[in-house]
């Protein structure tokens, strides 16, 4: 392989930018509903007609929103087609996860709860119809390992056993295997 054929190695997610409606709508949802502190704003340097708001989703990275005071909340489900984002998922603690459905419903936000085998999920929509997920793993990652290490080993065990999806047994066995290493 020549140098020009080498891949570009990423080291993590830097930020996600979404298209929102107004500044206040973005602040009300991302900070007001989801508790993401508003960090700063500036003009969208690629489109001066838009504003660019920055929020902290909790891990020090950023979620940014392009806003325009001439837009209104879409109030419909966002398109789901090739080239679009299906949803954004955010990590929450087990305690927050347990309280979230009632707190969202109290704000008039419809929620859908799902058991994903290795995690629990709550889905709902932002004011522009984009699907948002709150996710909570069903395991505690051992010291010195990453969540992805546990999930990769649980996946390997699931495949080897011919099971349809990752279960608590795969997770427990994966953690035991990792701790033996």
TrEMBL record:
This protein's species is Deinococcus soli
Q: Which residues form the VOC domain?
A: 12-137
Q: Is Lyase one of the keywords?
A: yes
SUPFAM superfamilies per UniProt: Glyoxalase/Bleomycin resistance protein/Dihydroxybiphenyl dioxygenase
Q: Which domain of life is it from?
A: Bacteria
InterPro entries documented for this protein: Extradiol_RC_dioxygenase (IPR052537), Glyas_Bleomycin-R_OHBP_Dase (IPR029068), Glyas_Fos-R_dOase_dom (IPR004360), VOC_core (IPR037523)
What would be an example GO MF term here?
lyase activity
One Pfam family from the record:
Glyoxalase
* Keywords from the UniProt entry: Lyase
Q: Which Gene3D superfamilies match?
A: 2,3-Dihydroxybiphenyl 1,2-Dioxygenase, domain 1
What is the protein name given in its UniProt record? Catechol 2,3-dioxygenase-like lactoylglutathione lyase family enzyme
Signal sequence: where? none
């Amino acid at each position: 392989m020549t140098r020009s054929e080498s891949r570009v190695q990423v080291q993590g997610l830097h930020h996600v930018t979404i298209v929102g409606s107004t500044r206040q709508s973005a602040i009300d949802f991302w900070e007001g509903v989801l508790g993401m502190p508003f960090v700063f704003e500036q003009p969208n340097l690629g489109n001066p007609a838009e504003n660019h708001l920055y929020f902290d989703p909790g891990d020090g990275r950023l979620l940014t929103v392009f806003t325009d005071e001439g837009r209104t909340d879409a109030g419909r489900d966002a398109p789901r087609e090739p080239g679009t984002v299906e949803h954004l998922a955010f990590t929450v603690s087990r305690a927050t996860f347990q309280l979230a459905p009632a707190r969202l419903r109290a704000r008039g936000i419809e929620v859908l709860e799902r058991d994903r085998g290795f995690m629990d999920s709550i889905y709902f929509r932002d004011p522009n119809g984009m699907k948002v997920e709150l996710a909570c793993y069903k395991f505690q990652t051992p010291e010195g390992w990453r969540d992805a290490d546990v999930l990769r080993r649980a996946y390997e065990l699931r495949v080897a056993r011919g099971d349809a999806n990752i279960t608590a047994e795969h997770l427990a066995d994966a953690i035991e295997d990792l701790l033996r290493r």
